[in-house]
Amino acid sequence: MPKSNAPYAKAKNTSDYNVPDVPLASKSTRIPEATENIKSEHNRTGVGPELQGGIPRYHYPKLSTKEDEIVMRKYYPAEMSNERVEMYKSGQLPKPFDQLEQALSSTSTARSEIPVRNAVVHWFRGDLRVSDNTALHMAYEKTKSKGVSLISLFLVSPEDYEAHIKSPARVDFILRTLEVLREDLDNLNIPLWVEVVEDRKNMGKKVMQLMEKWNASHIFGNMEYEVDELRRDARIVNMALQKNIDFTVVHDSVIAPPGALLTKGTGKPFMVFTPWFKAWVTYLHENPNYLEVFPPPTPNPKETRIYYRDLFDCPIPPCPEGKRLNPKEVEYVRSTWPPGEKEALARLQKFLNEKVMAYKDQRDFPSGNGTSVLSVHFAAGTLSSRTAVNMARELLGNGTLNTGNKGIACWISEVGWREFYRNILVDFPWVCMTKPFKVQYSNIPWQYNDAHFEAWCTGRTGYPIVDAAMRQLASMKYMHNRTRMIVASFLAKDLCLDWRKGERFFMEHLIDGDFASNNGGWGWSSSSGCDPQPYFKIFNPLLQSEKFDPEGDYIRKWVPELKHVKGKAIHAPFDRLDRKEWAKIEALGYPKPIVKHVEAKGRAMEMYKKGLGREKP
Ligand SMILES: Cc1cc2nc3c(=O)[nH]c(=O)nc-3n(C[C@H](O)[C@H](O)[C@H](O)COP(=O)(O)OP(=O)(O)OC[C@H]3O[C@@H](n4cnc5c(N)ncnc54)[C@H](O)[C@@H]3O)c2cc1C
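The joint structure predicted for all components is written out below.
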C-alpha cells in the first residue's frame, strides 16, 4: 500500500507550549501578530487579518422576520415536540442509551459463546489513543488469550461530520491525529485501516464486510453518547450477532458509568452540577478502580505483518469536501495544534508541573494563559479524562479528588463538568434534537436579526470583549471559557437571538467542538439548560470585561483597531473616549455598540417573561 499522500505536513510534536498564550507577541513567534497588515487589509473587509478567510461559515437561510415562530420552525424543523419529550420522561419512548444497553444485555450470552477466529478488531471513534483506552485494551486481552492478531479500524464519515457540524479545524485535527496514531500502532505491529463511508447508514454494513474479509470474530468500541451513535451501535450489535460476530461497546470517555449516580431521595438523574459532583467524588472514592488506567497493548505477533500486510501503511484520506480549511488557516491551525497522544500527555504534564496550583485564581482571565488548553485532546480522545484526573489526583497526594490544593481540586471539578454534560445527553436525549433541556424555554420568542447575528459572528458588535473573543475563535478555532460565557450570554440576552444559532456557530468553528459540552455551555448561558443559575442572570459585558481583562491585554491582542487605546477606555471606547479619539477608532472601522446593554437587558427580561408566562424569568 502506498504511504499517505495526505496534503498536510506532518505536525511535529513539540515541547513548546506557548500555543495559546495571550498576549502572544512577546512570547511566541508561532502565531502571526494580529496587527500585521491591518491597514491594507482593513478597508476591503472591515475586519482585521485575524478574520481573513476564516469567517463566517454559518448556513442559515435568509429569513422573513414576519413571525418569529415560523422562522424558528424553519430553522429547527427537527425540533422535537413537547409531547415526545414527555414520552421520553415517562418511559413510553425508550432512551437511545437504554436501547443500546438493552441490545448489549439481551445478546450477552450469545455473544460470549462466539469463538475467536483469526483476528479481533478495535474500532476507533472518539478515542484516538493507544494508552488508557478501555475498548482497545479489551480487544487486546481477547487476542492475547488466543494468540491472534489485533487489527484497528477508523471509518471517516463525511455525512456524520456534516450532521454533527464538526468544524473543518476539528476534522483536520482528527485526520492529522490518525497519521500519528497509525505510526504509534505500527510500532506495535497493529495495522490501522482507514476507510471513507459516504453513506452513514452503511456504517454497520461496512464494518461487517471488513470483519468477514479479515475473518475476525470480535469487535470492540468505546461508547459515544449522542443519540445517533447510540442507535447506530444498538443496530450493529444485533446485526453483528446475525453474522456470528460479537460487537462489544463499553464506557470510556466518562470515568463513572452513566446511570451509576442517582439522586438520593428520588433516585432520579441529577440535573444540577454541584450535587452530582459530590456524588461523583464519593462514588470514585468508594470505587477507585474506575480511575485505574489501562496500559497500551503489547505488540502483535510478527506474523501479523505477513497475514495482514495489505492493512499496514493505509493512507489517511484528505478532509472531505466542505470541511477543508483555507490555505491560511491550514498553516496557522496546524502549527498551533499539534496532534497525537504524546503531545497531549506532554501538555498535561507541563500544565500539572507549572500551572495547575494557581488554576483556581487564574482560570478566569483570558489573557492569563492559566488553563490547560487540553479540550482539543479530550474532544479527539487523544487524552482520556481518567488519565487526566488520575494524574491530577496523584499530585493532590492525599488520595482524594476534592481536598488539598485548591487549584488541582478545581481543575478536577472542571473535568467533572465535561462528564456531567455527557450524563445529561444520556438521561435527557432531547437536547440532541435541538430541544432545550428545560422544555418551557421552547416558547421564548427569540429574535432572528441577521445583522445582529452577523455582527456577533464577525466580532463587530462594538463590545470589545465580545469582539475579541469572537476573533480569537475565528483565528485560533478556540475560545477561552470565560469569554465563551460572555459571548453566549451576549447573544441570548443582549441580542435576544436564539441561542441555538450561537451553539451551531461554535460547532462550525471550534477545534474542540464537543456536542455535550457545547450544548451544556449554551444551555447554561441562555438559562435554558440544566444546572440553572440560582437566579436569572444577565452578564454585563462591560463589568465582565473590566473584571476579567482588567488591563485590556486580551482585547488589544484580538482587536487590533483598539491596540493603542489607553486605560479603561479599552472596555468601552465609544462611551469613554473623547469624540476626536473615537473618530480615529471609527476610521479604522471599529463599530459603535450595536445595542445599549441597559435597554437590551430590559428587552431580554420581557422576552423571557413572555415566553415563560410568568412575572420573573
Ligand atoms: C457556551 C460554551 C460553549 C462551550 N463549548 C465547548 C465545546 O464545544 N467543547 C469543549 O470541550 N468545551 C466547551 N465549553 C467548555 C469550556 O469552555 C472549554 O472546555 C474550555 O474552555 C477548554 O479550555 P481548557 O482545555 O483550557 O480548559 P480547563 O480550564 O483547563 O479545563 C480542563 C478540561 O475540563 C473540561 N471543561 C472545563 N470547563 C468545562 C465546562 N464548562 N463544560 C464542560 N467541560 C469543561 C474540558 O474538557 C477542559 O479541557 C464551552 C463552554 C461554554 C460556556
